[in-house]
Automatic annotation (TrEMBL):
<dbReference type="Pfam" id="PF01220">
    <property type="entry name" value="DHquinase_II"/>
</dbReference>
<comment type="function">
    <text>Catalyzes a trans-dehydration via an enolate intermediate.</text>
</comment>
<feature type="binding site">
    <location>
        <position position="77"/>
    </location>
    <ligand>
        <name>substrate</name>
    </ligand>
</feature>
<dbReference type="GO" id="GO:0009073">
    <property type="term" value="P:aromatic amino acid family biosynthetic process"/>
</dbReference>
<keyword id="KW-0456">Lyase</keyword>
<protein>
    <recommendedName>
        <fullName>3-dehydroquinate dehydratase</fullName>
        <ecNumber>4.2.1.10</ecNumber>
    </recommendedName>
</protein>
<dbReference type="InterPro" id="IPR001874">
    <property type="entry name" value="DHquinase_II"/>
</dbReference>
<dbReference type="InterPro" id="IPR018509">
    <property type="entry name" value="DHquinase_II_CS"/>
</dbReference>
<feature type="binding site">
    <location>
        <begin position="98"/>
        <end position="99"/>
    </location>
    <ligand>
        <name>substrate</name>
    </ligand>
</feature>
<feature type="site" description="Transition state stabilizer">
    <location>
        <position position="17"/>
    </location>
</feature>
<dbReference type="GO" id="GO:0009423">
    <property type="term" value="P:chorismate biosynthetic process"/>
</dbReference>
<keyword id="KW-0057">Aromatic amino acid biosynthesis</keyword>
<comment type="pathway">
    <text>Metabolic intermediate biosynthesis; chorismate biosynthesis; chorismate from D-erythrose 4-phosphate and phosphoenolpyruvate: step 3/7.</text>
</comment>
<keyword id="KW-0028">Amino-acid biosynthesis</keyword>
<feature type="binding site">
    <location>
        <position position="84"/>
    </location>
    <ligand>
        <name>substrate</name>
    </ligand>
</feature>
<dbReference type="GO" id="GO:0019631">
    <property type="term" value="P:quinate catabolic process"/>
</dbReference>
<feature type="active site" description="Proton donor">
    <location>
        <position position="97"/>
    </location>
</feature>
């Protein structure tokens, strides 16, 4: 099974940015733990702060991988383009969020990804990614 985790803007700052919301761990450290926990899965990771690069990666992997785990960060609430990219590919996408977006500002309650995603996992911290991987198994 081939899965890719795609993280959007500011998620490269995990471990530094708002630790009261996102925790103290870097994503790179957590990614290593995921690779160890799921050794039989080909797991890739990609992060970009640029909307078009995320769309390009969805197009690149969206016809050949078994699943995409996407945390589009703030683009979740603003990017019709990312939502359309998900609609245009055949690989299923699980939308994940580290924090409970519904307990935060009201603009974070809207997602342009959810209508096109296979499922949504919100608010379980970094474990949200683990749960998304399990959903593909």
């Amino acid at each position: 099974m081939k899965l890719i985790i795609i993280n959007g803007p500011n998620l490269n700052l995990l471990g530094k940015r708002e630790p009261e919301i996102y925790g103290n761990a870097t994503f790179e450290d957590y990614y290593k733990k995921l690779q160890e926990k799921f050794p039989n899965i080909v797991l890739e990771y990609y992060q970009s702060n640029i909307e078009g690069e995320i769309i390009n990666k969805l197009h690149e992997k969206g016809f050949t991988f078994d699943g995409i785990i996407l945390n589009a960060g703030a683009y979740t609430h603003t990017s019709i383009g990312i939502g359309d990219a998900i609609k245009g590919i055949t690989t299923p996408v699980i939308e994940v969020h580290i924090s409970n977006t519904f307990s935060r500002e009201s603009f974070r309650h809207q997602s342009y990804i959810s209508p096109n995603a296979k499922g949504v996992i919100i608010g379980f911290g970094l474990q949200s990614y683990d749960l998304a991987i399990q959903s593909f198994l």
